[in-house]
Design brief:
The chain has one helix and 19 strands. The N and C termini lie far apart (44 Å). The model has no long low-confidence stretch (mean pLDDT 94).
Length: 232
């Protein structure tokens, strides 16, 4: 983990030992802590290319969440979740009592990474578990909770001006309709449990969208992204 000074120079760098050799593509953070999700897709067969063939999915083992104090990397806590796989997480925040919340798009296992992605490169579509938008709650007591929206989703995003702060909404792509590509973009409201979405139609393939703020309200802004128009 490295820390940059305000001018961009390297201020410090430190190695942090992990409790297991997990694959991870992304991480998140609150204003005070780094959050690293260590899923039980483990490097147990040595390093080989492509990387996926050297990893073993251990559904019998938990997903570990490592929470590290930004100001003292030796201060760490580990939480346990059910075995889940994820590529992407949205920004996290910390409540006044120390509870940490963050969301991500979690699947039952890494079948897409193991088989599905390679099949797409061959022009094939395999039926693999979908990722669902879920919120993870880490309590100061050491307990954890998973809130499942039942919404198929990927590329979670939020207002970057609120990074590390409380928020109600998560933007994501959705609308997979029995295929490997999304056709819609949506915003999930964690307070009401409702989704506001726009579907581009069967002939548009939706890629990652970002939130660009405009006014002070949390949803006052623009969603900016690209779609592939199959007709054009």
């Amino acid at each position: 983990i490295w820390k940059l000074a305000p001018g961009g120079a390297l201020a410090s760098v430190e190695l942090v030992p992990l409790p297991q050799a997990s694959y991870f593509h992304d991480f998140t953070a609150t204003s005070r802590h780094l959050i690293i999700v260590l899923q039980p897709w483990l490097q147990e067969q040595g390093f080989r290319l492509p990387v996926a063939i050297g990893l073993t999915w251990r559904a019998d083992r938990p997903t570990l969440v490592l929470v590290i104090d930004k100001n003292d990397l030796s201060k760490r806590r580990t939480f346990e979740l059910p075995a889940m796989f994820a590529f992407h997480f949205a920004d996290a925040w910390e409540e006044s009592d120390g509870t940490i919340r963050f969301d991500g798009c979690f699947a039952e296992d890494p079948s897409f990474g193991v088989r599905g992605a390679a099949a797409l490169l061959r022009g094939e579509h395999l039926d693999v578990p979908d990722p669902f938008l879920k919120q993870i709650i880490l309590r100061p007591s050491g307990s954890s909770l998973v809130l499942d929206t039942k919404m198929v989703a990927e590329f979670p995003a939020s207002d970057p001006r609120r990074a590390g702060q409380f928020r109600r909404h998560t933007t994501h792509v959705t609308g997979y309709r029995d295929g490997p590509f999304p056709h819609a973009v949506a915003t999930w409201d964690w307070k009401t449990g409702r989704s506001d979405r726009h579907d581009f139609g069967d002939r548009q393939l939706v890629e990652e969208f970002l939130f660009v703020g405009r006014g002070p309200a949390e949803r006052d802004g623009w969603l900016i992204g690209t779609t592939l128009n199959l007709e054009a």
